[in-house]
Amino acid sequence: MGRLFVIDLQGETYSCKHCHTPFALTDDLISKSFHCKHGRAYLFENVVNVTVGEMEHRIMMTGWHTVADIFCVCCGSLVGWKYEIAYEKSQKYKEGKFIIESRFKVLGPDGGGYDMNEDEPMIGSDEE
To answer: What region holds the Yippee domain (predicted)?
Structure first.
């Protein structure tokens, strides 16, 4: 395997719960109101230190999407997915954006594993 390059982020970040590799700055967070099969998830504009898997079509709560799973570049953990194509007109804003599953996969800026307001309503989509 080749040399591993990890981008270091300055500021408050979200990082891998398993190896603490930074994924995104708090400024790149679009929404905490998404839901996935393991609980809540975060939508990000930009994510670093991930590898992108093969694209596949998935039916989600908001319709068909072409997505690619994303994995931590250091430990290889599956941490979420990237929206490649949204087929519903109302979902086009997701294209090129990233979902990171929150409950078991990401540490919040305070180092906590579940940086969510339980009273915040969930929107968005994930696999059914």
So the answer is: 12-109
pLDDT at position 119: 42
Q: What is the pTM of this model?
A: 0.82
* Domains identified in the chain and CATH numbers: 13-107 (2.170.150.20)
CA 58 – CA 86 distance, rounded (Å):
10
CA distance 38 to 5: 29
pLDDT tens sequence across 2-37: 677 899 999 999 999 999 999 999 999 999 988 777
- Kindly report the length of the chain: 128
The torsion angles phi and psi of 104, rounded to 5 degrees, stand at -110, 0
Which tokens is 101 given? Answer: 């599953």
Residue appearing with tokens 């109101």: 33
